[in-house]
Structures are given as structure tokens and as C-alpha cells.
Amino acid sequence: MNRQAEWVARAVGGQMIGPDVTVTGPVVTDSREATAGSLYVARRGENADGHDFIASARDNGAVAALVEREIPQAGLTQIVTPESTEALGVLAHAHLEDLRQAGPLDVIAVTGSAGKTTTKDLLAALMATDGPTVAPKLSFNNEVGLPLTVLKADEHTRHLVLEMGASGPGHLRMLTGIAAPDVAIELMVGTAHLGGFGSREATASAKAELIKGMKPDGTAVLNADDDYVAAMAQRAPGRIIGFTTRTQYPQFTDTWIRAESITIDADERAAFDLITPEGRAHVHLTLVGAHHVHNALAAAAGAYACGVDTQTIAQVLTASGPSSPHRMDIETVTLDEGRTIILIDDAYNANPDSMRAALTALKHLGAQRNARTVAVLGAMLELGEQSEALHRDVAQMALDAGVSHIFTWSADAQPLASHAQAKTDSGTEVTYSEDWNETLGELTSAVRDGDIVLVKGSYGSHAWQIAATLMESGCSR
Q: Where would I find the Mur ligase central domain in this sequence (predicted)?
């Protein structure tokens, strides 16, 4: 970012206290991430007040701070606004609109109940072939992460790829108010965040906010294989591109991106022929799991909408692996006593749809390698009243996948353990623990040489810490 503090104050309608310094560094909400020239945004959180860390931000190089109250003797320029998080979004919107007026810049936004981050990562790689591209790190897809990503764009940025998440109605409306997409990609309507939505119908209505919030002359990219998404075509204000793996599909658009001749190799990686109005090109994904075909098609459709040619799309998709951590990453891990396991690390987040996809991949990989499979399943959070039933469903998915051992922990996952334990005729062993540390110990004692181990759960379940510990320490105990 390269803005005068006075410009920032004007953009957010705030009062500037101190000299009109130049913000030349990144905008940050964590004082530890401040560098020379930064603008620090002091937010009030549940456990901490960012205003208490202004001195730390200043010492790390911040020259200005966006605050909700003046901090005496802060030693840097302050811009006072009623609410810092809201002001951050307003600032990002003003910054983006200024860049749009100055030169060619398109915004490509992705939403969906599952697959957002993988699709975002693929899109970032695709758009980078066409010009300077900015995309979020990890899953920066909420009212804080999205504006921070927008504020990384500058006058040289040609493409801004954004992931937009929602855990309730109105969330996508707020995010598109910050950055209205030129290309809006809808992946799927599933059962994530049911605690905030209540039903799949309500989820679909909320996800459609992305389409309603896009630029009037923009392009909607819709998954024709999801009926809820296909129905959003009637809300699209302009051009529509559909993507599908089917040979017959609803005729809501004349522009199609398709996958034909899909095959799955011994490492559970999909290959297919990518079909666009331009022609055909072969793709062989390095991503693990057949479900990534739809993610790849969505990314291909978004890139095609922005003018990337079919051959380039196929080449980039074939070369791109997982760039965000804990997402279907496969590694060989050597344990003590000479045991070696194949670890499938998909532990960044989880919902019933992504659990089904991961367990399907585990089943197929185990069959291909004639290996025993183990499922380490953390709780799925934010599912509301349906949480118990959906955890029981996941237990049944794991049993149907024929896993030899299920490990789970915490009160939220108790229904999963109980359902699996009740199926004594399944032949699947079930280990339930109080916390993830205990599960890690149980797991490392029980796994056998050659096992394929899937680790998956919502971020708050700490499943990612099990995967990370296995990766970092080799699990030696």
C-alpha cells in the first residue's frame, strides 16, 4: 500500500491525529506483523484489545494506526473511527475502487460450502500466467481477511482473486460490498455452517448473495452438477459460464466448461479432458481425490472468463499442487520401530461434504495399495442443532469406507464415536479420547507399518495439530 494517512482518514471518514505520514508498508491487524511503513488496525476481540498493542506495532515499524479511541503518547499518527473492523472494510473498498479507476483490474471471487481454498489456489496460479495477481494466504475469507487481501493490491495488480466465506445470511452481501466481483464462482451448496444457516435452502439463499453482489456486467460461473447452484442462474445479471462433469446438463447457458473421460490413478489423482468452446486439452491433477475435478473445472471456468486460453489452463492445472497447508497433502512419515505410514493431511477444516470426499479418497487409495486405512476425525464445528446427527452420518461414512480404526476426541465428536462403537459387527476399532494430545498418543501406539492415515477435522478441533506433529516430529515417542 502507498497512501497518505490523510487519504486513509478521508476514505474511512475518520479524524486524523498527528502528521500526514505516508503508509508504504502492509496493513496489519496483528502488531507482530507490522513492518516499516505499516498501517496498524487496532481491533477489539473477544480475548484482547488491539489498542493495547499499538506501542508494539510502532516499535515494529508502523507509522499510523486505525483506532476507535485516541491513545495518548502513542508515538504515531492515529486515525480515529467508531469501529475499526468496519473501517477496515471501508478502506479496502475505497482502495479497490481507486485502483479500478486507474487501470485494468478484475476481481474473481469464489464461494461454496467446500473447495473454496483449493479453487482459490488454482485460480491464483492460473491468473498469474496473465498478469500480476494477488490472492489471500490460507483462508482469509471473512470481514478481516478479505479486506487485508484487497489492500495488498497495488497499481500493478491485474487480477485480484478472493475467497469469500459465509457462516450466516448477510455475510456475502457485506463482503461483496467491499469488493464486488467481476467474476463470481459458485462451487456447491452443502452442509457447512448449518448452525448459522439452518437448512440447505437457507444456505443456498445466502450463497446467492455473491451473484447478487457482483458487477452488473460481470460473469457468473456456476456448478451445473449442483441443483442449488444451477438455480442461481436466474439471479445472474449478465454472462453465465457453467461447469460440469456430466454429458447431459441443464441448459441455463450456452457457455460450458466440461470434464470428459475422467480417470483416477493409483494415487487417487484425477485425469480428464478439459473441454471449452476453444477446444480440448488433457489435465492430470496432482491433487488427491476425485472431488478436485469440480474445483479444477471451477478454476478453469474462472480463468477462461478472464481470457486465459485452454492449453495454458490445462498446463497450469496439471502442474499445480496444494499451495495451502493441511489440504489433502500426502506425505510418507517414518515412525519409531521402523514403521512407515502414508499420511493424508486434510486437517485445516471439515464439514460433512468434505468429510465424505476425504473418506472416499481414503477408501480408494487403500484399495489401490491394498493397505489398511485409519481415520483420525476431529469434530465438525458450527453445525447447530444438526451437529449430533451429522457426526453420526460421518461415523457411518467411515464405516462404509471400511476403515480399520477410527480415532476421535472431544465432546463435540462424541456422537461420532458412539455411533461407530455401536456398530460392533463392522470390524472397525474405535478409540475415543478427551483431547487431541491423548489421541495423538493412542494413534502413534496403534498404527501399523504401511497404514494409510487420514487426519481431518474443523480448525478448532485441533486436528491440524495432530497432522503437524506427525509431520514435524515423525511421531517418535
A: 110-301
Say which amino acid occupies 348: Y
Which amino acid is present at 309? D
Give 356-410 pLDDT, tens digit per residue. Answer: 999 999 999 999 899 999 999 999 988 888 899 999 999 999 999 999 999 999 9
Q: Is 452 helix (H, G, I), strand (E, B) or coil?
A: strand
Give the C-alpha separation, 453 to 373, whole Å.
6
At 210 the three-state DSSP class reads: helix
As beta bridge partners, residue 269 has: 288
Could you give the angle at the alpha carbon of 135 between the alpha carbons of 362 and 279, nearest 5°?
70
Q: Which alpha helices (DSSP H) does 285-405 contain, by range? A: 292-305, 310-319, 352-369, 387-400
User: What integer pLDDT is reported at residue 476 of this predicted model?
Assistant: 37
User: What's the confidence (pLDDT) of residue 193?
Assistant: 52
What's the pLDDT score for residue 195? 57
The region that residue 268 occupies, defined by phi over 0 for left and psi between -120 and 50 for alpha, beta otherwise, is left
Return all residues near 116 (Cβ < 8 A) that are at least 6 apart: 110, 139, 141, 163, 164, 165, 187
Cβ within 8 Å of residue 275, ≥6 positions away: 256, 257, 258, 259, 260
Q: How far is CA 9 from the centre of its chain?
A: 32
Give residue 477's pLDDT.
34
350 half-sphere exposure, CB direction, 13 A CA radius: 32
The count of other CB atoms within 10 Å of the CB of residue 86 is 13
Which residues face 454 on adjacent strands? 344, 375
133 labeled part of a ligand binding site: no
- Classify the C-alpha dihedral 248-251-252-254 as positive or negative: positive
**Annotated binding residue 131:** no
- 328, 397, 404 from 370: Cα distances, Å: 20, 20, 13
410 is in an annotated binding site: no
Burial class, 286, CB count within 10 angstroms (exposed 0-12 / middle 13-18 / buried 19+): middle
457 is in an annotated binding site: no
289 is in an annotated binding site: no
259 sits in which H/E element:
strand 255-264
Between CA 463 and CA 458 the distance in angstroms is: 7
Cell of 392: 453420526
Was 116 annotated as part of a binding site?
Answer: yes
- Residue tagged 460481470 (cell numbers): 218
456 is in an annotated binding site: no
Residue stretches of the chain with pLDDT short of 50: 475-477
pLDDT tens digits along 45-64 = 878 999 999 999 999 999 99
Do residues 169 and 160 lie in contact, with contact meaning Cβ atoms separated by under 8 Å? no
Triad 31, 34, 35: Cα angle to 5°: 155
A 10 A CB-CB count for 311 gives 15
Looking at residue 196, its pLDDT comes to 59
User: Angle CA(107)–CA(112)–CA(117) in degrees, nearest 5?
Assistant: 65
